[in-house]
Specification:
By secondary structure, the chain is an alpha+beta fold. It contains five helices and three strands; from the N terminus they run ααβααββα.
Amino acid sequence: MTNKTPLTVNTTPAEKVASEPIPTFTDLANNPKGITSRSTVAKLLEIHVLTLTRWIKAGKFVKPITIGNAHYFRNSELIDYLDNKTA
């Protein structure tokens, strides 16, 4: 008889984040005091993160806040920006 032990797969924090669902614009609007990462915003806008970086440097997009070495956007500023762009 063989012992069938289930294999465990260790996932890195990056893999866990990558597997999480991307929030929608409605999610951002429902949480105006929240923050959203640069990579998540790029995914929402369906652009590359480097394109988003270029837009920020050119003053074409809202400036992120920095926490540690990570960059985040205030949801309220994202919603305001997107509302003005579509108006």
